[in-house]
Hints:
Elements: E1 2-5, E2 9-11, E3 17-19, H1 21-31, E4 36-43, H2 46-57, E5 60-61, E6 65-68, E7 75-76, H3 107-116, E8 122-125, H4 131-144, E9 147-153, E10 167-171, H5 179-192, H6 197-205
Parallel strand pairs: 1-4, 1-8, 2-7, 4-5, 4-6, 8-9, 9-10
Antiparallel strand pairs: 2-3
Helix pairs in contact: 1-5, 3-4, 5-6
Amino acid sequence: xxxxxxxxxxxxxxxxxxxxxxxxxxxxxxxxxxxxxxxxxxxxxxxxxxxxxxxxxxxxxxxxxxxxxxxxxxxxxxxxxxxxxxxxxxxxxxxxxxxxxxxxxxxxxxxxxxxxxxxxxxxxxxxxxxxxxxxxxxxxxxxxxxxxxxxxxxxxxxxxxxxxxxxxxxxxxxxxxxxxxxxxxxxxxxxxxxxxxxxxxxxxxxxxxxxxxxxxxx
Length: 218
């Protein structure tokens, strides 16, 4: 089983659906036949309800997804359609986030979720997970004997607590229509299927495309 840790979001407009890096990864892995669970927080609101239903339809479990009544589910406005683009609009600008105050994953949230999900073989941590919560995920992966894949914002250093056999991937700064998340999901599914990391990476990326941050043994 693959467990993905991160903050899910809901994309408004057409087509509406799950959004954000964690959802992109989880859905891509599930589409390859992997069993996937998502650990994170979503608002206890209508957008959160739609999000959970859509994840279930995509084959992504959410038994460890907390509902937060104090913060809304992050909502992302759909990008303009190609035939309706104003030439003056910069298409490299990140789509507007309708809800700016997203729920924050606390270390206790991650610990609780990963304690509930005990049989994962691959743990993927998205780049929106705070470093204190990331430390809990790293420890949980080691305890479970799971492969660990950590995404960090481009330019950030790898976490000091990363094991020597963990994979750190630099996430792109600009929107990519879910392409990077799809690559990570394919990589995680290949690992879950029993491939060694090098072979799984080649299978997922083909000729290349990821910027990999080197990790030294601690």
